[in-house]
Predict the structure.
Amino acid sequence: MIINKKLLKAKLIKIFFLFSYYLGIKILIKVFLKSYVDSGSNLKLILYLSPERSKYEIRYLRKKKFALINLPKLITNEIVIFCIKKNTKLDISKNSKKDPKKINFFSKIFEDLNLRLIISPAYHYTYDNLFGNFFSSKKVKYLIFHREGYNFSKNHLESLKKIIKKKQHNADKILVHNKIYKDLFKSSLHIYKNIIGIQGPLRMLQLVKFHEKNNTKKLMKILFLSFTPAYAGGNPLKLGNLGQYGSLNVGNIKFLCKNKFLSKSDRYYDYEQFYFAHKIFFECVLDNPKFNFEIRLKFNNEYNKKIIINLCEEICGYFPSNLKLDENNLWKSINESYFVCGYGSTGMLEAAILNKPAIQIVKKSFINSIIQKNNLRISNHLGCFKLAKSKKEFSLIFKKLVLSKKKPKEFLLLIKKAKLAFNNYIFNFNNNKKFEDFIVDLIK
């Protein structure tokens, strides 16, 4: 019998919480939680929820000598479940009725540990924001650093607006990555509109420094930034249990080109755009065996690798020897490339900062159809990229940039436009307010 280690660990944590609670022994949980504390230059603890989603932000805080309590998501989720009154069937998204006694039990433990700030990495993460709502107070501040801000499809923004209005999290501060999201949050949170600020992704702070140090790399490959059917479909924050790849799995790849994914739940995905862009790239790999190509997955786990490898084998008949899965530093890979291609990735604008051409492979209907244009992630800055709407157009770009080893003037102009878009939608390097200042203001 196969034992689910994660489930077993969750049950043991639950038993430990119940044992400590009913015997009134807070010290046991306090000692347990204290083992996760990373002390800084002060004793005011910060808890960053879902730490796997915010590794760079956590490294930044650690570097700035803030004190952190590094609780795995499994533990914080179990705390939330523990503090909710149970029904026969527990559904966190529908049942969040508090158990005041249990919340008070944990609140006193967090007070003893001197917890002063809780940070959630996204407005729509149910468990994380329940945690923030349960344990924030006058003394313990609650910050939502909504880290998902590079999707401007009409469907995504409307979906986010509905979630904001529905949830109404009572945060002390909400940070978003760009002005579009700031305006969206302000229009949806009338009471709290004055607590919303802009802070770009912290990892971008190092991008210019990287470029200055690595400006003369030899060109070695063509890089494709893979995406998922959910990205292609505008990703409206209502994907449910299907996840980013929807109904697509390793066993039904051969049906993808036949567009047989038409169930009700699949309306949030665009398998056709997903297939279209990957097919054009894979065929270019086949047509140019003397050149090296790399594909970088949006979600780089073993199952998703199998999906992409199976897709490549379905299109090409085999996995070409001149194609590799890229797992290196993104900027290093961009810097070594003739050009970057794909769809809807922030990496396309990051390529502009590194002075690399970026090609969005987009099917015509995405641009010509009003219905499908509502799913277009980059709808407000399409003019910053060279668009390849067919294999012929992509082959022509390949010929100009790789075979002819030139960078035509049109690409120099597009790179300038993309740098301005990067400043508006990804990170403003002239932003005087630092993440560190936001944190200090909240825990002072």
Observations:
- DSSP finds 19 helices and 13 strands in the chain.
